Predict the structure.
Amino acid sequence: MPTVALLILLIIMMAFIAVIMIRPDITAARGGKILAFLGLFIFPVFAGFAGLGSHIERSKQTSFCLSCHVMEGYGQSLRVDDASYIPAVHYQNNRVPRDEACYTCHTDYTLYSGAIKAKLHGLKHLYVQYLGTPPQSIKLYSPYNNRECLHCHLGARSFEQGAVHTADTQTMADIKSNKLSCVSSGCHSTVHNVANLNKVKFWSPAP
Amino acid sequence: MTQNQFISKRLRAAGILIMLGLLVEALSLIWNHPLSFVAFLGIGGLMMFAGIIIYLVSLVSDPR
């Protein structure tokens, strides 16, 4: 649900609840009881879930991820003027939506994966950012999964018929089963590489 | 205290908490910042939850 629509809905709900607060005696009648049940139970529950969905959608934005200081280098790595940088070449050529660049390649990261523990990791990041001491460097909780690459590249001609990918039948099978990593097997190994950002040129999009 | 007064008092308390919760949610949606999620969940969510509980308890409570 768009944020503006949700805000309008919240204002309507507040007006509805205000009526019940000003005239609680209307709840003595059957119709009033139904109104109170809607205003004080159904609407707030709906608003809570709608708000949660809206916040989760918003957290997928690149600007959200890059608002933490520790992520600055990763944001800069998207503008490196070097086609061997995998995130940069995806970002600059619109192979991922620029406003959701981080999320597109990290769909399983903290808040977005299923387990409660992973969601708590997301809250821990907030704690460390604002109340703790952010680390100098960060790393993924688990090795990068080929699934993140394959949800776009699977079926693509460049992937399915690539000379190295099809060198032998086992290679393709290992890539697809995540036994042979796309990024850490030496094939597409230049990823964010934030330690070397002071040695590279940057690309600037046309204004 | 009559039953009506008791229920009215509980409904007002529930209404205030839920309205404040909705207000916090609205503000958190306007504020584009990672902390807005914490405010939404930790303050708004808690207020709405408390308001809903007070309302539900008022439905089954006997003031006598």
